[in-house]
């Protein structure tokens, strides 16, 4: 082991690096951003950023299409894929916690053209998700009233996001911490509420238990009938999970602005499994318990294109059981969750665009940061594209939401594929250069099988993502574009950069595995671990 570490040190020392300046407690090494986010902010961002409209509202459509068993199996299956992707990212990011890491890793360890395509694809994904949350916010408000013009809320939200993101990442981090903490309480409260409702603690004294798994049944038929229809229902649930379940990307993006990343990031990555089980697997189980897939309230809301909380299975269950007040409280908390998710997607999108510029695939002026290390040009551009949410002014918000869901689902699938390919090439380079994974700050589990499993499953779902347009009388050009547009954009960017830059495929023996590591090592060595002095600080240290 000692000889391996010595060998690694020799390899690192041979790498030419640019050591950037350190500034007080906000020292930076990662280009122009600053490390100002502490452990609790990083942890709650990684949790809260994945909890948005999808798990509270959009999941209702999946239940209607597939039924409770299909929903549970689909979400559990997809969580296993995301867990494997998370393990891939954890190894690489904990070694080199740089800004916009997974996009830039793709350039270093696969091919610069591949990195450019990965980065632009992910940025498009963040733009779609950012607009989705803004549109969803407006839609959820209509649960109370539809007298307010739909253009009002995008203006209010974009203004609030600008105030939180254009000056300092500290404002963003602290806001996300508290709102994300509330989201954790919300989803935990919904799970507890589900238990009490199912055992009869409701105004109707109805202990319904797993009744809806028997009547109307565990699996719904979708598009077709019989076994084929039930499988198509399961696949619809799988696509819903592909949109809803995420996480590794957010940790990878925020790593470049985390204080003490070698201590913080491994802990954050290790908690992903717990979050996947608690929020998504148990959440999908709760939805299947509360509402039958043929629930008239939920089905009417979906078939009539009603927006927002009207499509939430939680709200539908509370209305059916005549539970007063609580639907309004849940709706208000869902609004804060949506606001937080939009904030997270703006952060991710702006950092991704900044990373694209740093790698030379976008105009150089986008690299500019303010004195607090915020890439304000990238934030402003990403923020401006939030104006796409004004599409809801001329179209129904439910239709616009479906557009953004389809675009982001396709782009996210491509992102997971790219992450797995990057890890596979990185692992090949580690082997070719004689470096053992045993000396890494984080050694992932189930590798390399996990990476190949996630790659194959993600690629298969991507291929069949828009299968329904090829069925009889199913062709809709817009649906085809939304289902496969991200794949075509990825390929177009890859070919364009390949031809323009003539970038070679990175050889395993020549892959640059350690540039940037020396700066991080020096930064970590300069940190002093101050012991907690108050009870609150001790609690935070234990939790995060």
From TrEMBL:
Keyword Secreted: no
Annotated transmembrane regions: 44-63, 119-145, 151-169, 181-201, 272-293, 328-347, 373-391, 403-428, 449-470, 476-497
KW Protease (keyword) present: no
Compartmental location: Membrane
Molecular function per GO: amino acid transmembrane transporter activity
Domain Amino acid permease/ SLC12A: 42-504
One Pfam family named in its UniProt record: AA_permease
InterPro entries xref list: AA-permease/SLC12A_dom (IPR004841), APC_YAT (IPR050524)
Membrane topology classification: Multi-pass membrane protein
Keyword set, alphabetical order: Amino-acid transport, Membrane, Transmembrane, Transmembrane helix, Transport
GO cellular component labels: membrane
Descriptive protein name: Putative general amino acid permease (AGP2)
Organism of provenance: Rhizoctonia solani 123E
